[in-house]
Amino acid sequence: MTIKKYDKLVRDKIPSIIESQGKKCKVYVAVDEDYRNRLKDKLLEEAQEFYDNPSAEELADVQEVVNALQYIHRWDLMRARNKKNAERGAFDHRYVLQEVSE
Predict the structure, then answer these.
(1) Cα–Cα distance measured from residue 45 to residue 40, given in angstroms and rounded to the nearest whole number
(2) Rounded to whole angstroms, how far apart are CA atoms 93 and 83?
(3) Which residue from 2, 69, 74, 82 has the least number of CB within 10 angstroms?
(4) Domain ranges of the chain
(5) Which has the closest alpha carbon to 49: 38, 36, 63?
(6) In Å, how far are 2, 4, 19, 26 from 23, measured between CA atoms?
């Protein structure tokens, strides 16, 4: 019997999918600080996967983690985004800063 170790947050249906393939898996439910930390780790993982393979599917994974973080922290991302855009702009002009002289 081969056992692969993961120790990472997974989507809700992953344990059922694994078991439907005739395999067994061991999971636990992360709570509070553990859940928040695992979401931050997952955000980095998904962002790296998007960087390596830019696609709608990979970006959707990033968005799913962002949505979970927004929900648990009760953040109003649209308000924060609008405020930031009003103060600093968005990325519409595609500016690349090369240098600043004083």
Answers:
(1) 9
(2) 18
(3) 2
(4) 14-88
(5) 63
(6) 11, 11, 5, 10
The sign one gets for the Cα dihedral 72, 81, 48, 99 is: negative
Q: Which two tokens stand for residue 102?
A: 């004083």
Find, among 16, 72, 15, the residue nearest to 39 by Cα: 72
Query: Hey, what amino acid is at 74?
Result: R
Per-residue pLDDT of the chain (102 residues; tens, 9 = 90+): 899 999 999 999 999 999 999 999 999 999 999 999 999 999 999 999 999 999 999 999 999 999 999 999 999 999 999 999 999 999 999 999 999 999
